[in-house]
Automatic annotation (TrEMBL):
This is DNA repair protein RadA. It comes from Methylomonas methanica (strain DSM 25384 / MC09). The gene is radA. The middle region has homology to RecA with ATPase motifs including the RadA KNRFG motif, while the C-terminus is homologous to Lon protease. GO terms for molecular function: ATP binding; ATP-dependent DNA damage sensor activity; damaged DNA binding; hydrolase activity; zinc ion binding. Belongs to the RecA family. RadA subfamily. Keywords: ATP-binding, DNA damage, DNA repair, DNA-binding, Hydrolase, Metal-binding, Nucleotide-binding, Stress response, Zinc, Zinc-finger.
Amino acid sequence: MAKKQKSAFVCTECGADYAGWSGQCNQCGEWNTIKEVKLGSGKAAARDNSGYAGARSEVRLLSEVNLAQAERISTGLAEFDRVLGGGIVTGSVVLIGGAPGAGKSTILLQAIAHIAERLPVLYVSGEESLQQIAERAQRLGLKTAGIKMLAETSVQQICQVLDEEQPKVVIIDSIQVMYTADSDSAPGSVSQVRESASYLTQYAKRSGVSFFMVGHVTKDQSLAGPMTLSHIVDAQVVLSSTDDSRFRVLRADKNRFGSVGELGFFAMESSGLKEVKNPSAMFLSRAEKPSPGSVVTVLWEGTRPLLVEIQALVTESQYGNPRRLAVGLDQNRLAMLLAVLSRHGGIFTGNDEIYANVVGGIKVSETSTDLAIMVGVVSSLRDRIIPYDSVFFGEVGLNGEIRPVANGHARLNEAAKHGFKRAIIPKSNKPKEPVKNLQIHAVSNIQEALAVLNDL
């Protein structure tokens, strides 16, 4: 009797798995995207029972595990190395995503051209022709003598070529077009992407070859494919553009060998992606004429400080229900800060519409911007200009207290380096020694912060 083929129900937008069919995906909210996919004949699972990490090993004591530092390979782009945690780890698998035209293929081609001068590499293209890639490399002015190319979409054939060529770094462009003969579903389906990524990851762990996999993104700018793809790879980075289309931001959403949330900044030019050595200056191109509601704060992104401008606008509501809109900020946190400002600062904004925006397209996830947001709201409400040489940071609690933030001294040094003369910070972040050319106002609650604001 023939064995019944197993199947599963998977959302084609986000990759969420379900036991049966449903009209709407609970994860991404899309309708009619849950499809039945065949899980293959079982040969994929039988080919190697070692899992993603490579060959099986004996049970050992944790204290006996070798703690030798993993070897890293430089990409030739310091910002790229920073996001990866210091370079490419031998045998690692990195998934890089981004919208069409973001520059994924460009940055990888620049990186592999630099690596090819020292180590054997292979660029596997499943979407573009080799002629198209060669024309791009020529346009970017790259040295292509050491770059080996392969146009193939079968992962089994790719691994056979890898056994023959023995490269150290491989680029798969893209993982969505790869397929494995062990799965009966069509190329590009959820099961094919999962099996192909699993196959290549196992090869990477066994052989010590480092892989870069290019991934497409969905309309909500998240990486397409099954959610298990994120669990398989060692690092997941996303290349996106800012409000100014000339600049690109590379963010690490997952990294087993470095800091999560690390940012790398690039400028898109005719000769390719160029590193931005001073990203704070990129986000501080402020208007010549000062205006109310404009405040500068210092974020901590990954392993370095970053100066950004936050704008707030308070205007009289024309309708019965005032709007609260935050771009680049958490909308719920904005509502909370307005409540704290009303309760402990005596400033009521319930009848006004309030808009807050982080200039440059940066997404703020930390709480160190609380004080800057509140100061921006007060500045716009009172139509009072904040001096351009002032910087604010600090977390605001529900009782109106100003809480300290991490890496306060490094944030102050970054502000002083860019010419700021005054800093309003939490009292617990006040340095023991003065910072050169920077006047520090340490505050412990909202009332003290508003008092300092009145004296500026």
